[in-house]
Amino acid sequence: MADPLRAGAPETQPLRLANVTKRFGTHTAVEDVSLDLRSGEFLCLLGPSGCGKSTLLRLIAGFETPTSGSIGLDGRDLAGLPPHRRPVNMMFQSYALFPHMSVARNIAYGLKGLGLSRAATAERVEGLLRLVRLDGFADRRPDRLSGGQRQRVALARALAREPRVLLLDEPLGALDRSLREETQAELRALQRRLATSFVVVTHDPSEAMTMADRIGVMDRGRLMQVGAAAELYERPANRFVAGLLGDVNLIEGRLGADAAGPTRTVETGLGPIRASAGAALGPGDAVVVALRPERIRLADESGEGLAGRVIEVTFLGDRIRRLIRMEDGTVLRASGPGGGPDWPVGADVRLGFAPASAVVLPA
Amino acid sequence: MSGTNRIALILGLGFLYAPILVLVAYSFNASALVTVWGGFSTRWYGVLLADRPLIEAAWVSLRVALLASLIATILGTLAALALERHGRFAGRGLFTGLVYAPMVMPEVITGLSLLLLFVGIGLDRGIATIVVAHATFGTGFVAVVAAARLRGLDRALEEAAADLGAGPARVFWSITLPLLAPALGAGFLLAFTLSLDDLVIASFVSGPGSTTLPMRLYSQVRLGVNPEINAASTLLIGAVSLLVLTASWLTGRGTGEGGKDDGKEAGKAGGTGHAPA
């Protein structure tokens, strides 16, 4: 048996969401979300609880009906198709293992009606158990399993029907921390091997950055930005995205009058700052400059740059973080590897950064 | 447990069960006089077994209880599913009230209204009418127990089944019903018990040839209490206790995650359930 779980011929866009909106009464859970999932892609939907990411997953699975917009799979509109007729499968946050069935029967549940012989079903179940390293657990009841084992049964069960797209709702949410990190890598390796598209909902930015090919950041029902982790980190679309992925300094100001170009001048309390502008913004617009702490270079008082004084130094092992009070009272965070020049608390320093590493965002 | 609590408990239990204990003890009385102890004997159980009208009444009761609780279980399950699985349909509140009303309705009212109904539609009174009457209030008890269990069931279980390709019918038969089964068993036994010891409603809606055991016992007591009645009552108490214990064991038996909590909830519902019994 080669790999019975490998998905069919790859297509460019298994899943396409177009202007999907979902309202519950007056509450808008998902607002105008458009998203194309690539074949074999690992996509994370990242956002705080209540941002609409789980609702989006339920819309794709068919448990909710969009108020407007469309969801298509391999070019076919899924509208009106009930959950049991959709070629997608979901792994639930609670795992939702059937408590009255053995592990094997849980996994085989979705195989009924696929026209498999008894032997083929048994073989498939065995293959899935091996895949999630649960050989020998076939006859256990779910309540006799550990949390990590239950998670793997849920995964095997969701994979049994070889879905075009696998939806995972907080798949690692119930695991403890050390197990979670181990499982992240496992899940990623499994997804690569099966070449099935995964859509994973998570509220943990580091989890999304560890696993995903692309991350879709959601806030209050809207999809704010979709892109690779590095892209979201370096070129966030707005301050929410900037703040979600890692630490960031946000410096408020107004856009200067210089012509639109790759870098523009922002008038701030620290004086004029040159930063790169992505968004369409006009002169005089209120903006914030997003600047990652590790992109700030420190220099001696005699050097060039913005003047400030170190007010706190924190040793974090792999790096050292300094809080620096600027002349107008703004406090910025700067971090860098240890071993460099030592600027203790009270030292007067100069701050510099490349304009390309500071991003102008709408205020 | 403090001393005061212990005394309160003993007094409470004594108040509830002392009369029953006396009855049970006197059922083993060798003397034919109810109030005089004449030594231990099981002779009244022998007399009981030879009492044809009493045995016949017991059979009527058993048949009525079985049929009525079967009907009540089916209807109660449907009512619980409607209440818990079909969202906020129009008239849901009213429906809830209507399902639960027979449980709190004075039995005299229930009995009288059913009698008027049966007379009105020209239905001959007999075993069938008692079955209908008992199914009426049994349905409410089954619905309460089943609804509590349904509320405690993770909706994701049914959704997961649907997600794995199961249509609504397969979801119901392979997931919802098996997980509901302990509650339905408990509901069935409660309905059975209530039917078995109902006197008031049965008296209203029974006809000739359909005398239930409690009716038979009651009419005999009016002629005078004899130890045979004590023996019959003891057997009835034994049967009912066994059923109620089984019912509460069934509701308390959790299935998988979260099962314990909703078991408790269902147990509470069961508690209010057999209070009138």
TrEMBL record, chain A:
SMART domains assigned: AAA
Family statement: Belongs to the ABC transporter superfamily.
Molecular functions per Gene Ontology: ATP binding; ATP hydrolysis activity; transmembrane transporter activity
Keywords, alphabetical: ATP-binding, Nucleotide-binding, Transport
Entries under InterPro entries matching the protein: AAA+_ATPase, ABC_SmlMolc_Importer, ABC_transporter-like_ATP-bd, ABC_transporter-like_CS, Mo/tungstate-bd_C_term_dom, P-loop_NTPase, Transp-assoc_OB_typ2
Residues covered by the ABC transporter domain: 15-245
GO annotation (BP), single: putrescine transport
Protein name: ABC transporter ATP-binding protein
Transport in keyword set: yes
TrEMBL record, chain B:
GO biological process: transmembrane transport
Membrane topology, from the record: Multi-pass membrane protein
Any one GO CC term of the record: plasma membrane
Domain of life (superkingdom): Bacteria
Transmembrane segments: 7-40, 60-83, 95-121, 127-150, 171-193, 229-250
Keywords: Cell membrane, Membrane, Transmembrane, Transmembrane helix, Transport
Biased composition (Basic and acidic residues): 258-267
Pfam families xref list: BPD_transp_1
Keyword Nucleotide-binding found: no
Gene3D superfamilies, alphabetized: MetI-like
Keyword Cell membrane (UniProt): yes
Biased composition (Gly residues): 268-277
Domain ABC transmembrane type-1: 58-248
First-listed, main subcellular location of the protein, grouped into a coarse class: membrane
Region described as Disordered: 254-277
PROSITE patterns in the record: ABC_TM1
Family recorded in the similarity comment: Belongs to the binding-protein-dependent transport system permease family. CysTW subfamily.
Protein name: ABC transporter permease subunit
Annotated organism of origin: Methylobacterium planeticum
